[in-house]
């Protein structure tokens, strides 16, 4: 389904002559194709929608880091380009959960799994990744899990 959405977005960007959007969608599709090729070499199935969400999350993180470096280096125009690409990529992701929602979900998962301490952190993070792919920053979430399991 994500592949179809991306394909349609590329056609729409071409028709609208939206160079920025077209470029960003092409970058996304290239990243997915690269992962497909890696999977084929390993004898795995093509990339799933969940894996596409992981790819998009990684692309956003890369662009955030690049934008920060460009800003620090006095290259505002390049930083703006990165930020514009981030917005295009975010458009293909599910709604991001707020900090309070994430905390409540994690508290519920801790109760559900019966997690007692930091040694059970993996159980909670595993369920988070399974149930909420692409909807939250897992680096931040792991900090919340640690905090709640202390």
Structure in words:
With 150 residues, the chain is mainly α. The chain has two domains: 2-90, Hypothetical Protein Yqey, Chain: A, domain1; 99-149, Orthogonal Bundle (Arc Repressor Mutant, subunit A), CATH 1.10.10. The chain is 77% helix and 0% strand. The protein has helices at 2-16, 19-41, 49-72, 76-90, 99-113, 121-131, 138-149. 17% of the residues are buried.
Beta-strand content estimate = under 5%
Order of helices and strands: HHHHHHH
CATH topology title of the largest domain: Hypothetical Protein Yqey, Chain: A, domain1
Structural class assignment: mainly alpha
What is the rounded distance between the termini? Answer: 40 Å
Gyration radius, in Å = 18 Å
H/I helix tally: 7
Q: Unreliable stretches, pLDDT < 50, 5 or more residues? A: none
Number of structural units classed as domains: 2
Largest sheet: none
Query: Can you give the mean pLDDT?
Result: 91
Superfamily (CATH H level) name of the largest domain = Uncharacterised protein YqeY/AIM41, N-terminal domain
CATH hierarchy, class of the largest domain = Mainly Alpha
Helical percent range?
A: over 70%
Write down how many β-strands occur, each being a DSSP E stretch of 2 or more residues.
0
List keywords for this structure.
150 residues, Hypothetical Protein Yqey, Chain: A, domain1, Arc Repressor Mutant, subunit A, 2 domains, 7 helices, globular
């Amino acid at each position: 389904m994500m592949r179809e959405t991306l394909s349609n977005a590329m056609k729409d960007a071409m028709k609208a002559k939206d160079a920025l959007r077209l470029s960003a969608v092409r970058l996304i599709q290239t990243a997915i194709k690269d992962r497909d090729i890696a999977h084929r070499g390993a004898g795995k199935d093509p990339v799933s929608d969940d894996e596409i969400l992981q790819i998009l999350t990684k692309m956003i993180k890369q662009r955030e880091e690049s934008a920060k470096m460009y800003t620090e280096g006095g290259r505002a125009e390049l930083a703006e380009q990165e930020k514009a690409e981030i917005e295009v990529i975010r458009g293909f992701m599910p709604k991001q959960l707020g900090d309070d929602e994430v905390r409540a979900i994690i508290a519920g998962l801790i109760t559900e799994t019966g997690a007692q301490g930091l040694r059970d952190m993996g159980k909670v993070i595993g369920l988070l990744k399974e149930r909420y792919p692409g909807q939250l920053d897992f680096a931040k979430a792991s900090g919340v899990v640690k905090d709640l399991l202390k």
